[in-house]
Each structure stands twice: as C-alpha cells, then as structure tokens.
Amino acid sequence: MKTVQPIFIVGIGGSAGALNAYKVLLDAMPLDTGMAFVIISHMNPTAHSQLAKILQRHTKMSVTVAFEAMPILANHVYVIPTDSDLTMENYRFKVISPRISRNKQIDIFFISLASEIGVRAIGIILSGYNGDGTEGCRHIKANGGKTFVQDNSAEVDHMPISAQMAGCVDFVLPLKKIPAKLKKLAAALKT
C-alpha cells in the first residue's frame, strides 16, 4: 500500500463522555478522506487503555497507539498512549512520558500541530470537563487552521463551551455532520 502524507491532520480531543462521541464520529467518517486522525483522550495514567481496540470496531481505517518517531499517514487513526503527552515534528510523533501535567494533553498536541502544519491543522473538541483544548484551538486558528466543537449533543459540554467562549471555534456541529465539512475543507484546499 502506498503511504501518503495527509491533506490535514485532525486532532480530536475529548474527556468525560467522549468515548461515544469518538465512535459516532468514526462511524460517520469515510475510509479514504486523505486525512490522519489523532485522538487525544484524557486517561488515567495507570490505566491499560483499550481505546485503539474499541475504536477499530468503528472504522475501516487502521487504528494504532502512537509511538515515538511513528510516521503520520493519511487514512489512519492514532490514539495517544497512556501517561503521555504527544507532539509532532516533520509528520512524525514525539512522545513525552510521563505526561507533563494533568488534563493538558489536548492543548499540547494542538499547539504542536498548529506550529508544525499551520493551515493543514484541524482541531475538534468533543465532550469533556474543564477547558483543555481551548488554548490549542487558539493556536490552530492563529496559524490558519480550522477548529470544530461538538454541538449540544456533548454528554459533558464544558470543553466545547470553553473553546466557543474563547472565540476560537469555526464550526459547531453534530458529530455526523463533521465528516462532510472536513471533506469540503479538503476539496477547497486542493483548488
């Protein structure tokens, strides 16, 4: 199979209540978007995460736990390892373990994503408590990327509302409508 650099790298951040949101989003996502998806989920640092295995049941794309120097490829889904922060450089992951601080993993990845790929960065904030992801969305927008938040269907709306209140959100959508909007953004980038 030919390896292709993604059109966009889509960071997807969530916490409490986000598991169902990840499933719905991946169920609605086509196999061949030309994008890479990186799921940054708040997890207990001592947990043995089954997130990649669970999400693999909801997409035909390959779902893998990210590791150091792993290349970020189109039409793949990556999951943050437990007790780690994730950044990227030259379309490869950098893993910082143990994590730097509690519940800042989304901001850390989104800020790295924004600084590395600018207009090709997309951040999506799903269900969760407090404001992780808001600062990262600010960086994505400041570097020309696009930001989304889950609409009022979020089980816990603190994270989506925090980003909206900060004025750094381009789209507030139900999960099933996000894939079509991503496809339009990719088509616009190609023209």
UniProtKB/TrEMBL annotation:
Keywords: Chemotaxis, Hydrolase. One of its GO terms (cellular component) is cytoplasm. It comes from the Bacteria. SUPFAM superfamilies: Methylesterase CheB, C-terminal domain (SSF52738). GO terms for biological process: chemotaxis. Its EC number is 3.1.1.61. Coiled coil: none annotated. Residues 6-182 form the CheB-type methylesterase domain. Pfam families: CheB_methylest (PF01339). The active site is at S15, H42, D132. PANTHER family: PROTEIN-GLUTAMATE METHYLESTERASE/PROTEIN-GLUTAMINE GLUTAMINASE, PROTEIN-GLUTAMATE METHYLESTERASE_PROTEIN-GLUTAMINE GLUTAMINASE. This is protein-glutamate methylesterase. It comes from Gillisia hiemivivida.
